[in-house]
Amino acid sequence: TLFRSDMGNPVGQSGLGMAYLYGRGVPINYDQALKFFQKAAEQGWVDGQLQLGSMYYNGVGVKRDYKQALKYFNLASQGGHILAFYNLAQMHATGTGVMRSCHTAVELFKNVCERGRWSERLMAAYNNYKDGNPNSAVVQYLLLAEQGYEVAQSNAAFILDQKEATIIGENETFPRALLHWNRAASQGYTVARIKLGDYHFYGFGTDIDYETAFIHYRLASEQQHSAQAMFNLGYMHEKGLGIKQDIHLAKRFYDMAAEASPDAQVPVFLALCKLGVVYSLQYIKEANVKELFSQVDMDQLLGPEWDLYLMTIIALLLGTVIAYRQRPHPAVPRPAGQGQRQAQPNPPPEQQPQPQQ
Hints:
By secondary structure, the chain is mainly alpha-helical. Helix content is 69%, strand content 0%. It is built from 19 helices and no strands. Helix 10 runs antiparallel to helix 11 and helix 15 (247-260) packs antiparallel against helix 16. The radius of gyration is 35 Å and the shape is elongated. Residues 1-5 and 331-357 have low confidence and may be disordered.
């Protein structure tokens, strides 16, 4: 370990830090432990970051500093360290060094729980699905979904939504999918929230309810800034489904969707073109066209003899076209050999590489 730490290896540095921190083979020396943990943390080693955070949190060898502890716990959590998630959850739950937030603490504790040993069952369900056995996969996902596993809830809902599981009756497929989409949406999954809106919009597993669909799309738009939800809100405003028809609000939501995601720019462009045509037709329909033209005084606008001016312009244009068509055009010389060239058979296409097994 000493040799590896001298070579700048963060694993060796972290190991030496642990040795000095707990007196394993060397006398306890908090200054040396802090030094080696800092070297490991500077190279992005999550164990070094975690131990530095613990030393600042407990005031071991250094003055207690919750801000520094929070900093290093956050860095370690970005590397996926479970203890870092747990320590951050404790800090947010008790308001230590940060403003107390039960919502954030629950999310962090949820991350810890989902990294337990039962996550292996999730991988087993996924492998069953990839191997073409959706029935076995959906059973495993449903068992994990009952334990509150959001990924399992959304995956079970997806398999049911695609009607791939034959062990579930056809009449129960969409109601069960709706139930698990609802559970996953309650845990903050954006796709599940949009799916809830779709199910109420189209009447899958429930009655058609545009107002409820509108509520789910609005939640996905406001909380997760989903471009798909914004686009759907624009469409519902355009058609007046579940909400009063408002073309101006429809355009606003379409524009927001285009800003939220580059993938939405083409659909938004087409929707705005259609919206422009609809708006123009609506304007013409509401306006009195005959009255509009009757208010235009051509004599005052172009003079008392405006009809003669117009006829003269048309005659000049017509004469120009006739003169151009009657003018003789010079023959264009053809390149030598043209007309004598024989048709050649098309060359065979280049052989495409075959995928290797």
